[in-house]
């Protein structure tokens, strides 16, 4: 028989057991709390990653640069309905507790203690803030204890209002949105101050599980969750009956966004990346982290002109892509296709990761994969384009399209792809001729000078004979004015100019002063744009020098940058990088001559779209129709356009590939859209210095 347990002994066992459990829990809590808690310095300066915001000059948010897409927003600008909905739903005793709510904690602990896993939460807003700032999202008892202890310290360090502001600015609303400022933009395309009571309740409802309640996957579930938040607000006195019923009846209308990439804006992806690189290379910003410090970058881009640029390209390339596909025949290009397939195989992840003995098997499989081969064909035959528009007077970039709009629309990572406005270098063809004519006019000639236009040959120093094609149907000995020669882009005249009336070195000097920075060769073929490769941006800068009466201004993409509190860091508007390139009289003369290109010459297609506005420019087509250029300007805007293919083994197949057809119409479409928009500031339709009786083309 065992010893009988007396009431005293039972009480003693109970007390000892309770003490053992209590001390065991205390030791466990002490062990958990002895490491991985945030330091005092971290508590005083909580780590928060704020997204950099990039704005157009007309106030449109065009993109974020971020680790976490979060934008700071002060509590006094946050709608009262949102704060009330948050407290009613997440922590109704927020203003009464000191970081933790013991009743909720112990109820949750009883259910979770034996599993050592968190199945039910008891978190206050402060505890959730502690988790967001300092801990990962694993559901463990250790994390919960550390979270509770940290929340107590947060309550000591900050006021309730400061805690609310930090929480609302850090919490995730799903779809890549951290903080209310970004969430209101992502879900409703509004600022927080514009949110209705119903929308505030909807966003608070997301906090429980954004992937379930975002109303995209299941609209009814999202509304059901919103209604629960509204009911809690009503029950706790934050809404009266009329307000409650009105909010319940309001439908949720989500902003239209691209669901396949929740973190991308597609207004000007290549321009955004161009700006990011500029900021990264600016030593004055070395102490800032563009991904975490929440800078505010005010750019020169005009969102309406940017949209018009995309539209002009899209309208033109849609027609041109169809025309090219109809004329391109892979049956006659089998050798090229085989090379492309082999090149693509070597870059394919399966081939790269395969062991040496298995590579040939992978290659055979890919050669027989029709989907793989079709993707190669589609990629290399997609017409690409680069376009940049500058404000003539300021040098500001007001639009930049770095690839075909179709590519941008279908590629969520377009901003990281090749920027065909700034990063490609291609021969400019006849678009380079204005620099040759500028050199010749500066030295000896006038627009009325007569130069022979018939067939031409020139013996190079090495004894080789250079015979450029393209003499405008001129007979041997026939002459034309320089005005007509430029308008009709007669190659033989440009060749005579660079070899007889000026020199390649002189042309290079002129081009350098005007804005061409790429290497140029000291060869006569430079007259036809075959002596170097240039980018659309530098060609646009150089042509804008003509329109600016000989003054070169370096292009500008940023107006100013502020920190996340609105303090000015760098003002790019204070510095004007201006230099004299050519004389005003010479620039004016060249502008007059280039109006002839559009009014009477190879740029005639511009006039199909652009009427009642003077314009000047030059077309450029390279050998075998590989590249089509048009660089032109009105009294206020200068645009450079390149059209072609990424793989230079692919080219247009006939006369439709001439720049007059392939590139010039884009300029006409674009400028027509701009000058027909009464809300844009560009109104000047005539060059102030042009004499309309300047010259008449010889017939």
Strand order of the largest sheet: 2-1-3-11-12
CATH class of the domain at 74-249: Mainly Alpha
Number of helical stretches of at least 4 residues: 27
Average per-residue pLDDT, rounded, comes to 86
The parts where pLDDT drops under 50 for at least 5 residues are 28-34, 114-120, 258-264, 695-699
CATH architecture of the domain at 74-249: Orthogonal Bundle
TL;DR of this structure?
With 699 residues, the chain is an alpha+beta fold. The chain is built from 27 helices and 16 strands. Among the domains are: 74-249, Penicillin binding protein transpeptidase fold, CATH 1.10.3810.10; 333-380; 429-529, DD-peptidase/beta-lactamase superfamily (Beta-lactamase, 3-Layer(aba) Sandwich), CATH 3.40.710.
Can you describe what's shown?
The chain is an alpha+beta fold. It is built from 27 helices and 16 strands. The strands form five sheets. The chain has a five-stranded mixed β-sheet, with helices on one face. It has a five-stranded antiparallel β-sheet with strand order 5-4-16-15-14, sandwiched between helices. Helix 3 (80-90) packs across helix 11, helix 9 packs across helix 11 and helix 20 crosses helix 23.
List keywords for this structure.
single chain, 699 residues, alpha+beta, Penicillin binding protein transpeptidase fold, Beta-lactamase, 5-stranded mixed beta sheet, 5-stranded antiparallel beta sheet, 27 helices, 16 strands, 44% helix, elongated
């Amino acid at each position: 028989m065992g010893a009988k347990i007396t009431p005293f002994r039972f009480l003693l066992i109970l007390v000892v057991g309770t003490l053992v459990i209590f001390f065991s829990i205390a030791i466990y809590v002490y062990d958990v709390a002895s490491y991985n808690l945030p330091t005092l310095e971290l508590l005083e300066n909580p780590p928060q990653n704020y997204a950099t915001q990039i704005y157009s000059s007309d106030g449109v948010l065009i993109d974020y640069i971020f680790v976490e897409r979060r934008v700071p927003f002060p509590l006094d600008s946050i709608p009262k309905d949102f704060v009330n909905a948050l407290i009613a739903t997440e922590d109704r005793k927020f203003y009464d507790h000191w970081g933790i709510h013991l009743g909720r904690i112990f109820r949750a602990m009883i259910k979770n203690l034996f599993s050592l896993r968190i199945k039910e939460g008891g978190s206050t807003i402060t505890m959730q803030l502690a988790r967001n700032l300092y801990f990962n999202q694993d559901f463990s008892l250790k994390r919960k204890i550390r979270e509770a202890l940290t929340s107590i310290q947060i309550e000591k360090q900050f006021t309730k209002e400061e805690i609310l502001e930090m929480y609302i600015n850090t919490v995730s609303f799903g779809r890549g949105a951290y903080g209310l400022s970004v969430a209101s933009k992502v879900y409703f395309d509004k600022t927080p101050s514009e949110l209705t009571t119903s929308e505030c309740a909807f966003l608070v409802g997301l906090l429980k599980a954004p992937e379930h309640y975002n109303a995209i996957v299941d609209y009814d579930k999202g509304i059901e969750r919103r209604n629960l938040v509204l009911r809690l607000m009503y029950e706790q006195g934050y809404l009266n009956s009329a307000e409650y019923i009105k909010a319940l009846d309001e439908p949720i209308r989500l902003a239209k966004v691209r669901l396949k990439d929740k973190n991308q804006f597609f207004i000007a992806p290549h321009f955004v990346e161009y700006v990011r690189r500029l900021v990264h290379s600016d030593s004055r910003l070395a102490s800032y982290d563009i991904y975490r410090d929440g800078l505010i970058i005010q750019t020169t881009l005009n969102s309406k002109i940017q949209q018009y640029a995309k539209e002009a390209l899209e309208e033109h390339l849609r027609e041109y892509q169809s025309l090219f596909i109809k004329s391109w025949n892979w049956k006659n290009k089998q050798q090229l296709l085989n090379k492309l397939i082999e090149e693509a195989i070597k870059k394919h992840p399966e081939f790269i990761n395969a062991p040496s003995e298995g590579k040939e098997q992978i290659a055979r499989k890919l050669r027989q994969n029709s989907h793989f081969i079709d993707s190669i064909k589609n990629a290399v035959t997609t017409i690409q384009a680069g376009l940049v528009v500058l404000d003539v007077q300021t040098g500001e970039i007001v639009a930049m399209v770095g690839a075909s709009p179709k590519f941008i629309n279908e590629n969520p990572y377009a901003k990281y792809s090749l920027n065909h406005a700034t990063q490609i270098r291609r021969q400019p063809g006849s678009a380079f001729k204005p620099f040759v004519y500028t050199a010749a006019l500066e030295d000896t000639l006038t627009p009325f000078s007569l130069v022979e236009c018939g067939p031409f040959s020139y013996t190079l120093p090495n004894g080789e004979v250079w015979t450029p094609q393209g003499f405008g149907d001129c007979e041997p000995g026939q002459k034309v004015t320089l005005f007509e020669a430029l308008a009709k882009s007669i190659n033989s005249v440009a060749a005579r100019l660079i070899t007889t009336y000026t020199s390649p070195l002189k042309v290079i000097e002129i081009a350098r002063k005007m804005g061409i920075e790429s290497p140029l060769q000291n060869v006569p073929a430079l007259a036809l744009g075959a002596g170097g490769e240039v980018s659309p941006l530098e060609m646009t800068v150089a042509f804008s020098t003509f329109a600016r009466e000989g003054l070169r201004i370096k292009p500008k993409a940023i107006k100013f940058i502020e920190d996340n509190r609105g303090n000015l860091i760098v003002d790019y508007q204070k510095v004007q990088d201006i230099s004299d390139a050519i004389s005003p009289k010479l620039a004016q003369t060249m502008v007059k001559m280039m109006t002839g290109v559009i009014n009477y010459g190879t740029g005639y297609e511009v006039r199909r779209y652009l009427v009642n506005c003077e314009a000047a420019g030059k077309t450029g087509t390279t050998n075998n129709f590989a590249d089509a250029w048009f660089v032109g300007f009105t009294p206020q805007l200068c645009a450079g356009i390149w059209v072609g293919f990424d793989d230079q083994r692919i080219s247009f197949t006939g006369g439709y590939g001439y720049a007059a057809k392939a590139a010039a119409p884009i300029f006409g479409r674009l400028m027509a859209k701009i000058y027909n928009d009464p809300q844009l500031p560009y109104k000047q339709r005539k060059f102030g210095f042009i004499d309309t009786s300047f010259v008449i083309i010889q017939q």
